[in-house]
Amino acid sequence: MQEQLLYSIPRNENLDGIQKYVLETSTTSKNISKEISDEMFHLFFEVIELGKEIRISLKNDTYLDTELKIADIFLALVAICNHLNINLYDALTKKEAYLNGKIAKWF
Questions:
Q1: Domain ranges for the chain
Q2: pTM of the predicted model, to two decimals?
Q3: Measured distance CA(52)–CA(91) in Å, rounded
């Protein structure tokens, strides 16, 4: 029988807590380069899937699968940040500070 992994992200957790939780529940090997490469492939695949899902969601006016694809992308980004020792919250606040010095919008 295949072992089933159950995850339970703590409710009302902040970004730092989620990043720490993903780090604690992930398996890592000594080949960080391969792990990052695998996560990048996963991220690219999920972004393509999100694009497809958004086209379908706009036609059907249902967004559950879109939410799940966005969660997949978020978790892939968190995993990449963990492999590179990047605190995602700190990166976002640095980006916001940079943008506030330029223009007050994200894109």
A1: 32-102
A2: 0.72
A3: 29
CA angle 82, 21, 16 (to 5 degrees): 70
CATH class entry, domain 32-102 = mainly alpha
Residues 80, 65: Cα–Cα separation, whole Å: 23
Averages of pLDDT over each 10 residues, the chain, 107 residues? 54 80 76 85 94 89 84 91 91 84 60
The residue to which tokens 């604690």 are assigned: 24
CA dihedral 36, 54, 66, 76 (to 10 degrees): 10
Q: CA-CA distance, 9 to 61, in Å (whole number)?
A: 28
Distances (CA, A) of 33 to 38, 47, 79: 9, 21, 13
Cβ-contact 98, 92 below 8 angstroms: no
